[in-house]
Amino acid sequence: MDSMRTYFLQLVIFISASSYGCLGMSEVRQCIGLFKSTNHSTPRSELNKAFETAFSDAEVYKCSHCSGNVIRLFDAFKEAIPKLKEEDFNVLYFATQEWIQNLTPATHFHVQNARGGSEIAQLKKAMGFAYHMVLEHKGTIYDLDFTENPNPIGYRDYLTQYFMTKDQIQSSDGQLKGSKEDLLVFVVPGESYLNTDPAYALKVPFHRYLILTHEPQSLVEVLSGTNVKGETVPPKSRSRTQTELLPWYLH
Questions:
Q1: Quick one: 48 and 33 in the same domain?
Q2: Are residues 140 and 58 part of one domain?
Q3: CATH assignment of the domain containing 133
Q4: Residue 71 DSSP SS3
Q5: Residues 132-184: pLDDT tens digits?
Q6: How far is CA 132 from CA 17, 227, 244, in A?
Q7: Same domain membership, residue 233 and residue 118
Q8: Is the same domain home to 229 and 156?
């Protein structure tokens, strides 16, 4: 679609200029060249191709290290498409209330259609996650832990296909915590996250920083947010004010 749109605009420029006779061929070519140089949008196909390559790269994907995976994945995108910037992306940080309050995995949340491939991954698949982070670009989710094959997916489909509801969770003790209904999400702007050292992204102080500086949103509320076309609207980042930070820090 992006290449067709570019071709169409070039054709419009050429026909308009030729019809009025105001520009020669050299001027038309210069005009089209200027248009190309200022068209900085990234075709979805380029990102999807880079994601397919990164998905199978052992230097990018580390099992049980989603906080670092999003950084390495962005670096792989940047290597393939140099014009990309951190601010083109968001990092979505999913967690339970217990994790946010204590930064200990007291309650895991459960997922489906998760990537396997190793004993650790299979264990995570069965037990669930204490938290999870993914890369989001203009409504498309890039998650190295989603499905066995690279699968860029729209925001609404990802939320419904990856996270489990209470009705989907089989619980032997009657406890249904860790379902989609219990989840919160932080939307962290890429420029606040993607230049972090992947090793530091694992550390509790960095998680505390993210939690202190961004306001969580209920995943259920996020799912209910739609635009006029009925499409799910990805949540926007909500930064905490200084007065909001103090009680959270003292919690």
A1: no
A2: yes
A3: 3.10.620
A4: helix
A5: 999 999 989 999 999 999 999 998 889 888 888 777 776 544 554 567 777 88
A6: 53, 26, 24
A7: yes
A8: yes
CA dist 142 and 190 (Å) reads: 13
Query: Rounded to an integer, what is the distance from CA 207 to the centroid of its chain?
Result: 17
Residues 151 and 219 in one domain: yes
Q: Residue 20's domain spans which residues?
A: 2-38
Is residue 72 within 8 A of residue 198, CB to CB? The reply is yes
The radius of gyration of the chain's CA atoms, rounded to the nearest angstrom, is: 22
Question: Nearest-5° angle of CA 188, CA 225, CA 98?
Answer: 50
- Non-local (6+) Cβ contacts of 197 within 8 A are none
How far is Cα 251 from Cα 247, in angstroms, rounded to an integer?
6
Tell me the pTM. Answer: 0.72
Domain identity same for 16 and 116: no
Surface-to-core class of residue 154, CB atoms within 10 Å of its CB (0-12 exposed, 13-18 middle, 19+ buried): middle
Structure token digits, residue 8: 């169409």
State how far the Cα of 218 lies from the Cα of 135, in Å rounded to an integer: 18
Q: Is 163 helix (H, G, I), strand (E, B) or coil?
A: strand
Name the residue among 49, 72, 74 with its Cα closest to residue 60.
72
